[in-house]
Structures are given as C-alpha cells and as structure tokens.
Amino acid sequence: MNVIKLAMPFGKDELSTLNAGDIVYITGKILVMRDAGHKRLFEYIKRGEMPFDYNGRIIYYMGPCPNRKGEVIGSCGPTTTTRMDKYTPYLLDTGLLATIGKGDRNDENYEAIVRNKSVYFAAIGGAGALYKNTVKEVKTVCFDDLLAEATRELTVEDFPVVVAIDSKGNSVYRN
Q: Which residue among the candidates 38, 102, 105, 152 is catalytic per the annotation?
C-alpha cells in the first residue's frame, strides 16, 4: 500500500501506477452525480446531445447535505455505487477517467475499468464531515432542477480515497 497525491488533471498513465489498496489524495476539480443526474444525462445522450463534458474527468457519487451559513458545502459523503453501475461502462468507454463511490462494482464495471485503464476509488461511508473540509468551491454544472442531485463540480484539496479497483482489475473487495 502506498500513499499518493494526485493533482487534476491527470490521465491514464498516472492511474496505471496505482494499485488496489493505495491511499490517494486528490486535488483539483471533480464532478458530482447521483442517480437522477445519470438518468438525465443518458436522456440527453440518447438524443445526441451532451450537456457537459466528462472526458478526462472523475465522477464522485454523492449528494451533499445542505450547508450551514459560511460553509462551502454540507456533509458530502459517498452514496452506494451500484445504482450507477448500469451507466458507468458507457461513460468509461466514452472518456470518463474514473469514479469515486462506496461499495463494490458489478462484473461489467470491472471489465470496463480494465478495458479503459481506469480506476474505481472508494470513499469512506460515514466520513461526510471529513470530505466537506476538503471542498474549497462548489459550482453547479447542470440539472439544477434536480436540487441535491444536480450535477456539480467540486474543487477539492487532498480529497482522501482508496483505490478499490485498479486498472488491472485487482480489488480490495475480491480476492
């Protein structure tokens, strides 16, 4: 296990050096999406439209809690990843760099991660207060009408994650 700091933007070359179990601190801009945002994105894709560019980006599966006065964001821990499993292979195949969530992925996602030399990072469930302290800025990208499930861009500093599935298919969930 290694401890690694990565600053966005980075690419597949950097991801290929990561191994399952490595601890990574991400600094830079990451996208935030959940169930409703993914569903809406795919409605646009089916119509041949692209409401935002996810190429070379990371998507964090989370829904923020309301922030208190003076805070950038409220608690922002991960949500269960399996609800996005049906969307992720397509997104990886069309340019998404990596994802961050909570829990294991299905076999189709393992295959897409390896095929695309991607990585799945795990965030720690129950650590939403820790994660909010790494968020320096929040910007709504699209789907504002979805409220907590709007697509957002977070600027983060030393956002802690674990490499749950590496680009070779090794996993902290499976032996």
A: 38
